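Re: beginner question about structure tokens

> Can someone show what the tokenized structure looks like for a real chain? I only ever see the sequence side.

Sure, here's an example I had lying around. Input first:
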Amino acid sequence: MLKNQNSISAKYAWTSGLLFVLLLAAVRANSAMLLKLDTGIIGIVQNSMPTFETSLMKAVTTIAEPKFAIAYAVIIAAVLWFMRLRVDAIWTLATLAGGDVVAYIFKEFVQRARPRWNQVISESGFSFPSGHTFGAVLIVFFLVWFFVSRIRSQNLQKVCQIILIIWVVLVMYSRIYLGAHYPSDVLAAFFLAVAWLAIARWLYKKLYDFVAQFVEKDVQGRHSQH
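And the corresponding structure tokens:
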């Protein structure tokens, strides 16, 4: 099924990769300009923090926990497996697992400390890139490619896509609002996720036949469509 979906264009993939590298370089170089921009945005976001908004942001960030992203991916993979889209199911789990490893490597490489002021929630570990944002972007793309794209009504498809986009924005906003990340952390996570998904789609295409011969019953029939 994934092979029938439009992939991320090379232009967007390379642009996302480049923007991630630029942010990575700026953070590693302790860019004063980037820090000023980050702190300025945090100041604006945290200027007014009503109880309702704080509770909402806590709920959003809890739902988007990386450990829950793993659970969401497992559920998506299970549904795909039940639908006999077994290569897609394996790809979903491998993409999330591989992406988490990639994000972790960059966290350890950069070792950026989290913002030290007005932390609404206590977070441990390094700040760059945002794991919540990275996982949310991957899950949203999974949902769009595997399920939203199957909706026959174009209008309903667009509504679902808009809702999912809003969700990603809320996750990114919540991490800044709660003082868990700098804005550059969440932006870098978004760009890294898009670039990683493009790589994962390329690997899917290259390895589809190899994986299919082990998990697909009707290998010849599926190969004829590939």
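Each token stands for a local structural state, so reading them left to right follows the chain. Residues 85 and 198 are 20 Å apart (CA to CA).
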